[in-house]
Description:
The chain has helices spanning 6-18, 42-47, 71-78, 92-98, 126-129, 198-206, 228-232, 236-244, 260-271, 279-284, 293-297, 301-304, 312-315, 327-335, 356-360; strands at residues 86-88, 102-104, 111-117, 120-124, 134-135, 138-140, 144-153, 157-168, 173-176, 193-196, 209-215, 218-224, 363-365, 372-374. It has 384 residues and is α+β, with helices and mostly antiparallel strands.
Amino acid sequence: MNRPPVAAAIVVLIVIGSVVASGPRESGDAPTTQRQSVSPPLVTQLAQVSVAEPAAQPTFVGRQACLECHPDNYRMHGHHGHATTFRSASDPDVADKFVGKSFDAGEPFGTYTYHSDDQGIFARLREKFGDQPFRFQFALGHKSITLLSLLPDPVEGTVGLEHRVSWIDGPDHLGKTPGQRDETLINAAQLFGNPHHGKVMHKCVYCHVTTGEIVGQEIKNLTPNVNCEKCHGPASEHVRLAKASKTPPPFSVGRSDWDTESEIQLCGDCHRLPKDVSQKQLRDYPDLLTRFQPVGLLRSECFVQSEGKLKCTTCHNPHQSVSETTAAIQVQNCVACHQQDSQSHVACPVSPTDGCIDCHMPAFQLDGLGTSFHDHWIRVRDDQ
């Protein structure tokens, strides 16, 4: 059997095995660079925020600090996919998805087997490297979980290696990670996944965490998952003002110039905007683009004709999982505008009070992603 150069393989695997990363804290904690620590009680967190004087710059206080005043949103967010977008690969729930299983990736890769020890989860390619382990650091995703390792690179400094295999929720099995390229291998490490450098690598982590910066093979100031402060910003001033007022308003932060454009830019920063996809994809609009909801929404007549009124939160509660929103509520969002006795909107001549989503925003199952995505290009489809 053909093997990678022994020296190269050993060097790569030794380096991989020596990588030490800053492990994530619990999802409600403020940024940290330590591998493990315990979140202080809420009263301690709030006591550390001065009421008298504003900080020079607002700081992150952690999701837990939001619970006292916003219990409903806190609870809903706990069930949201955003609450589990980034974990240590040694997380028991992650290990349970992989350990004891195997996946045959075919040639030239081979069959991965998954194991764990006191250092965390790792994979083996026995036919190429025997019992030598390839260790994973992080697990990204909710409905599908993909493993990531940060490795030293002689040119880029650091490369993010995205494992070729992911756990997929729907069928509860291991499958090929979407986007993996079967290209010519440059080094032995690529037998375990595709490398990402520079902006792509940083964006991959950025969109799955509240705070965190890749420095070398570590993630500094890591607050895992997409929590409150990812969208609302660092909350120390919000907490300080709420404590200073005897009757704080329900929402004491917010910009007066916040509008539809601002919201779509915020959501699209990670859920993608037209600028993030190719001109050919925008022209052909393959099923893959249903994964990038703002791209479809921005070309919908519902959006174009709304004069800046239709935005993501018109239909979605950003704190609530879509799975907790009934189909009847989603249809009502459509009917609220498309009323039969109104001249301001077109009412559906086929089914004016039901079936809106199935006809105009059908769901597509995309390979390897473990869930379906509704097409947000709202339109009368050619196949209807």
